[in-house]
Amino acid sequence: MDPVVQALADQQAETHSLLHGLSDADWDLSTRCEGWRVADVVLHLAQSDEMAIASLSGQWAGGGGDSSSGWAGGTSVDESVALMVERERGAPPQDLLARWTTAASGLAARLDDMDLSTRVHWVAGELAARSLATTRLAETWIHTGDIAEALGVELEPSDRLKLIARLAWRTLPYAFGSGGRTMAGPVALRLVSPSGEVWEFLPDEPAATTIIGPAADLCEVAARRTDPGSTSLHGEGPDADAVLSLIRTYA
Predict the structure, then answer these.
(1) By the 8 A CB rule, do 216 and 134 touch?
(2) pTM for the complete prediction?
(3) Stretch 27-49: mean pLDDT, rounded?
(4) Which domains does the chain have, with CATH numbers?
(5) How far is CA 63 from CA 5, 85, 90, 126, 221, in A?
(6) Cβ neighbours around 146 below 10 Å, total
């Protein structure tokens, strides 16, 4: 199994370990996703994984109005996913768990059975199936943290974060463009992994800006779950503040 697909499967397993055996009251707990309960987060993951399977099968082109073929009439990605959840919320917890488990395992199997260099359609345009796998890893990790926080469970960060940090680094031009900003020059990341290893993400040309600190902090900031000022991250160079403000792992 390709390392990114293995990482996605491992992340899905961690998510499932949190959800298995929850009480109905646990599924109804509020999360740090405004207006969403644990059940809503799992519904969103199921919908998103179903969309990813459709994309890999050449059946999703960003139009339409159901959970597998497009946006539900929203004017932004956030509004669209909120509408999708609103329209389908209310299923019993065990049905939601079964739906997400089927979608998650189906996505991993589909990715494992294909050429990951294949170009597919997704939210921000066309990308390689490998990149789609990494975005699914990142989003599953983000929402696993949302669920864990609601349950009062502290998860140990893993070295799967290397793939997520690399995604955030590679998509910095997209993040700057979406924020209406122009990068002053290439950006490097020098991060400390959960196991203590140093991870360096270096551009081909000399970096104008370098961000330094724990990989877990960088990924939390890129997930928009932690304010950069509350972390140990720091930067050197003209874009240091902008990078920490704009970096992200989702469209």
Answers:
(1) no
(2) 0.92
(3) 97
(4) 3-151 (1.20.120.450), 161-246 (3.30.1050)
(5) 27, 17, 25, 14, 30
(6) 21
